[in-house]
Amino acid sequence: MRKQRIASFFMLLILLVSYKQLFAIPVSLELALLVDVSRSVDASEYAQQKNGYVNAFKDPVIQDAIASFAAIGGIAVTYIEWSGANQQSVSVGWTQITNAASANAFADAIDNVDRAFGLGGGTAPGSAIQFVTPKFSDNGFEGNRWVIDVSSDGIRNTGTQASVARDHFLDLETVGEGLTKTINGLPIDNTDLGFLGLADWFQDNIVGGPNAFLIAADGGFDSFSDAVKTKIGREISEPPTSVVFEPTSLSLILIGLIGFYFVAYQPGRIRVQA
Question: What's this model's pTM, rounded to 2 decimal places?
Fold first, then answer.
């Protein structure tokens, strides 16, 4: 009896570990939008920024790009607002988008978001990257590309070093073959703040990974809508190699079944003390 209990426990453990991979929804792209709502972003600029994302997902060109991947699950997207070291909010959770209707629904969800942190605090893009990193592994989706999209009008002044958080995300070990991890940047030039070298700082501290790129809103928040539309369009349209189904799931189940057999039906191989 004890042998059967041990075998059952072993099998249950294997199934729990592989549950996420077994039931994850396949998609082409998992995209996290990290949106700066720190103190330097006033109410008008916040509205321009949010409207930029709304307009991007309602744009027919963007919607057509998403629909082109519908056969392999479309994309999964989340919208996260951030400010200081401990100020991150999942304003719109992970959402699957496959067509115009689901893109419009995601845009409407962003439109209904209230600013997460009032007039905000410091600027901690590294902490925002650190916050979202583990969420890719437990979001219910399985894509062959993980992309973090960081927009901000300033350099880090608090929280985790951005380059450290970036490198941790890019170096993260994953079980899927062919999975790529990328962080792209959208610096919003705000000369009133004196951040004339913002794009260079983004390039050195934020951007990284295969096919990573930076698109600057050179005209400040007035040019943000066009910049974010171009950026999201490029991120979505990058051709996927193939959808990655992590092989670990079936392997774990097979190992579990073999272990169950030897524990339950091969008493001469494994001894269990009474």
Answer: 0.82
